[in-house]
Amino acid sequence: MRGAFIVIEGLDRSGKSTQTNLLHERIRASGRQVELFKFPDRTTTIGQMIDAYLRSQAELEDHAIHLLFSANRWELAPRIEQSLKDGKTVLCDRYAFSGASFTSSKGLPLPWCKSPDVGLPAPDLVLFLDITPEKAAERGGYGEERYEKREMQERVREVFKGFQDEGGPWVEVDAGRPLEEVTEVMWGKVGPLVKGVEGELKRLWVDG
Ligand code: DGP
Fold first, then answer.
1. Is residue 208 part of a domain?
2. Cα-to-centroid distance, 165 and ligand 1 (Å)
3. Can you give the residue ranges of the Thymidylate kinase-like domain (predicted)?
4. Is 139 or 121 the better-scoring residue by pLDDT?
5. The pTM is what?
6. Are 124 and 193 within 8 A, CB to CB?
7. Domain tally, the chain
8. Is the pLDDT confidence value at 12 over 90?
């Protein structure tokens, strides 16, 4: 048995980080070992460049910044794999699906956007927290960062929704519902996996 690799994706204002932290706590409280990753990880050298870009303190060409986001995932992939081998559940706040959705929403071809992430550890479960731009606005609207604009979020949402058709372990969650209800829906999917899973870890966009 190895640990399960669980990715939480979602739009800005979907409650993604809150829900990921709640899951983290709940797994810990159940006495199981769990490791939390968040992308972009702004603490590394690459992550600091991404952070400056997102806060509009640096300009980078669209392909170049995309490759940095991907490199940020690759630099942490060995730690993810080790945690899984050690039997820990890995929770990951955003992953390559964000990468492909955000960059392709700028007009770059989706296959190109996916290519640098091909071969990363593949998740056993992806929970996609979906929210309409209207609901997001009710929650106080978007923040100050580069992509936090309604038009961009609408395009990103459409690309995210396309991953459902890839046939992977993709589960859409209505994140417009009250927080506790969303937590329970997510726990219904995550709870059965925290004991660990059988089988080799798959490779993203390589293994069926
Ligand atoms: P967060 O720290 O979760 O607020 O995410 C930062 C922003 O970066 C958010 O608007 C989503 C975006 N983002 C995350 N991963 C990628 C990526 O790989 N590529 C691009 N272009 N944007 C990303």
1. no
2. 22
3. 8-183
4. 121
5. 0.96
6. yes
7. 1
8. no
Ligand 1 nearest atom to the CA of residue 148, by list position: 10
Evaluate whether 163 touches 170 at the Cβ level (below 8 Å). Answer: yes
Residue 204 lies in a domain: no
Query: Residue written as tokens 């983290």?
Result: 24
> Which tokens in the block code for residue 139?
């929650």
Q: What would the pLDDT profile of 129-151 be if each residue is shown by its tens digit?
A: 999 978 887 888 788 888 888 89
Lookup: tokens for 135: 């609901």
In a domain, 201, yes or no: no
Per-residue pLDDT, averaged over 60-70, amounts to: 98
* Residue 95 domain flag: yes
Instruction: Provide the CATH number for the domain around residue 104.
Output: 3.40.50.300
147 lines ligand 1 (CB under 6 A): yes
pLDDT at 206 over 80: yes
| H or E element at residue 127 | strand 125-130
72 Cβ below 6 A of ligand 1: no
> In which element (H, E) is residue 182 found?
helix 179-190
Q: Which domain holds residue 112?
A: 5-193
